[in-house]
From TrEMBL:
InterPro entries, A to Z: FAM173A/B, SAM-dependent_MTases_sf
Family: Belongs to the ANT/ATPSC lysine N-methyltransferase family.
Keyword line: Membrane, Methyltransferase, S-adenosyl-L-methionine, Transferase, Transmembrane, Transmembrane helix
Coiled coil regions, renumbered to chain: none
Originating species: Patiria miniata (Bat star)
TM region(s), chain numbering: 21-43
Gene Ontology MF, one: protein-lysine N-methyltransferase activity
Protein name: ATP synthase c subunit lysine N-methyltransferase
Record flagged with keyword S-adenosyl-L-methionine: yes
Entry superkingdom: Eukaryota
Gene Ontology cellular component list: mitochondrion
Amino acid sequence: MMNKVDVNIKPPSKRRLKGGLIILGISGAVIGGLYAVATPFVLPAFRKIPLPYVPATARQVDNVFKMLHSAGKTSGTLVDLGSGDGRIVIEAAKYGFQATGYELNPWLVWYSRLTARLQGLQYRAEFYRRDLWKVDLSRYDSTVVFGVPSMMPKLQDKLSEELPENGVVVACRFPFPDWTPVESIDEGVDTVWCYHKNQLGHLVSAGQSVGGCEEGES
């Protein structure tokens, strides 16, 4: 004959239940916050032409302005396509440029604006959340881009059509496929290439050199 075992199951107290709900709510808020912050960084991988956020090093920033100075660009209008945390635009404002950054990541746009304001540069360093392919580049004397190989051919076409005659392009990390740079400095990921619109002309066809710039000419 089996002995009966009394099992006394007590319902959770209201205090414990309330504490559990609070912990659950906090956990949900944290997860939601992480998702909101991470999403803009993950989304580039799902775009047609991904442009991931990789901060420029101090050496890369220095190389950009060495190249601009060598090209005779020490002021005027400057645009950074995919401006990230705004360091190129803010540095350009310090040099005396009227600088603009375009970036799709809203968190980076807000961060860049805040940084510019804290440094008193908000009137010379402006940031907008916008697709770089929809930006009119004709009003910028100097264009800076930290690109990836997959975007360079398409961007090359856009720049060829929209750059002003005195326009200068500084490409970082990766060069344009069909253009011969006027000058380049450094090596590896710190390499910077400079292109002048008045020495480019228009592309003849994909894979060919640009009119006025033969292969190997600088």
